[in-house]
Write a structure and sequence with these properties.
The structure is a homodimer of 311-residue chains. By secondary structure, chain A is of the alpha/beta class. The first copy, chain A, has 14 helices and eight strands. The first copy, chain A, has an eight-stranded parallel barrel with strand order 1-2-3-4-5-6-7-8, surrounded by seven helices. In chain A, β7, α9 and β8 (227-230) form a beta-alpha-beta unit. The longest helix of chain A is centred in the middle third of the chain and has 15 residues, at 115-129. The first copy, chain A, is globular. The two termini of chain A are 38 Å apart. At the A-B interface, α5, α8, α9, α10 and α13 of A face α5, α8, α9, α10 and α13 of B. Chains A, B: One of its GO terms (molecular function) is hydroxymethylglutaryl-CoA lyase activity. Chains A, B: InterPro entries: Aldolase_TIM (IPR013785), HMGL (IPR043594), PYR_CT (IPR000891).
Chain lengths: 311, 311
């Protein structure tokens, strides 16, 4: 049970991008600087997308250049195309995260690209990174199901993983983009992926849309996954299920792993303090459970009648 | 993966008892009658407590006598004392559920009895049931931790289980009363309990207070547990964590197990229809995720631009 786990926060990218209001640049920087000292392995800082496409992240360069990078923490950014990659490289990111879908319809709907088109574009982007030393990760959306097409054949997931690794991708994030995954499927796909490509770096990325987020994380852990994406406060959402939960919550995930006796390297109290600042930044409550209920080791005073009776 | 699982709903007892308003007797009966046709293995109908202690369940006899019992479904009731047991027996329940705590402080705070006092009272109650053929279950609260004392020694849990079985209890529910359990602990305690007492009937009872409810259910399943308490809509709460989730949600649990290819015997659509009536009965939204997000096989229409472009 002493295996080291790596927790990667995506709130400032996956979370902030869908908020109704723009989080001021200095607040983003302050939050990331705070997170950098919690023991997180990686922070997805922002996205080098067109400011028109995602106005909330229009300050990508300012944020990436403004943060105080802490040695040992990896700073990654989402990169949608060659232009975004050039912007990211100019900020000396540690990693770029490419995104594609495992299903045609979701790829077209979300990125206006089929998986084939995404792969072709990734090859161009990777060409641009040559010699930079930047780590190349690819997030494979709809790995566990597509909200338009339904089941995605597992053979398709493995075929796309193989092709990603062939073109120079070093890490693959298996993404349950809309919260369709179940623990049996997660354990099967994660186990198979780790077995087929032992040298690749796999991350599991779950949403809690259907309440199974931490159960799926447990299943991935059982399969041997040691890297997990999660979002501070449980920020992020599912555009296809308004009102439903989005990404699994970082502090809830860390809490579960710590209670299980596993080493996440994260200071949970520091993480909770950072999470507690979120409602002030985004103007609404967040889904995280530990923020509401406290950690499992929280103690309550005895009822007054017991105290008075000396019990 | 074809092992049969047994799903037991506690919403009309564990859920309704803490609602702000009284659910009319005829509505309780109608809901239970509806649930009786969903394939649930057991329904915890009500509690034969003093009407003063729990006014919401003051109609215990009327409800128990008013429902149309379906063969194959077990109807259980909570029984706090000999008087409650006599009332329950007069209604010809299938099972009585006794409740005690594994920790002294929670026992005193919640039941005004230490575990020793509870055991003595259980012996009296069981004496009253002799010859009735009623099944005796005991719910062991704070099995996975006490909100006052913290960790409960696992040896204490096994000692109390042993004593419960010695005095004639046939089934033991391992209860995570305030949502403190973690999956590693759950798997350990469930596995050990099943191994020590292969002839006893064990149920796992989890709360989702800290987001780990379904992860803990998965851990219990992995340990060999096949009976699960859950609450329709996720009704029920944690008195020690206002605003936090309570019992795990029946339809979310069934949905997870079904997606995993497991046989719960439950018609999920019928269960969801029953859950959808809850807000009208209790006057507020419920925590269940599937009610909000839909099942994982829910399909969404393609974006309009794709439809128009014939994609």
């Amino acid at each position: 049970m002493s295996k080291r786990l790596y927790i990667q926060d995506v709130a400032t990218r996956d979370g902030f991008q869908i908020e109704a209001s723009f989080v001021p640049t200095e607040d983003k920087i302050a939050l990331i600087d705070r997170l950098s000292h919690t023991g997180l392995a990686k922070i997805e800082v922002t996205s080098f997308t067109s400011p028109k496409a995602i106005p909330n992240l229009r300050d990508a360069e300012e944020v990436m250049r403004g943060i105080a990078r802490v040695p040992g923490v990896e700073y990654t950014v989402l990169v949608p195309n060659v232009r975004g990659c050039e912007r990211a490289l100019s900020c000396e990111v540690d990693e770029i995260n490419l995104v594609m879908s495992a299903s045609d319809t979701h790829g077209l709907a979300n990125l206006r690209m089929t998986p084939e088109q995404s792969l072709a574009q990734f090859a161009e982007i990777i060409e641009v990174t040559r010699g930079s030393g930047v780590f190349i990760n690819a997030s494979l959306s709809t790995t566990f199901g597509c909200p338009f097409e339904g089941d995605v054949p597992e053979t398709r997931v493995y075929e796309l993983t193989e092709r990603l690794l062939e073109i120079g991708v070093q890490g693959v994030t298996l993404c349950d983009t809309t919260g369709m995954a179940d623990p049996a499927q997660v354990e099967r796909i994660c186990r198979e992926s780790l077995q087929r490509w032992p040298e690749a770096v796999f991350t599991a990325h779950f949403h809690n849309t259907r309440g199974m987020g931490l159960a799926n994380a447990l299943a991935a852990l059982n399969a041997g996954i040691d890297r997990f994406d999660a979002s501070l406060g449980g920020l992020g959402g599912c555009p296809y299920a308004p009102g439903a939960s989005g990404n699994i919550c970082t502090e809830d995930l860390v809490h579960m792993f710590q209670r299980m006796g596993l080493d996440t390297g994260v200071n949970l109290d520091a993480l909770l303090e950072a999470a507690a600042t979120l409602p002030g930044l985004i103007g609404h409550e967040v889904p995280g459970a530990i923020l509401k209920a406290g950690k499992s080791d929280r103690r309550y005073p005895k009822p007054k009648w017991m105290q008075e009776a000396g019990l």
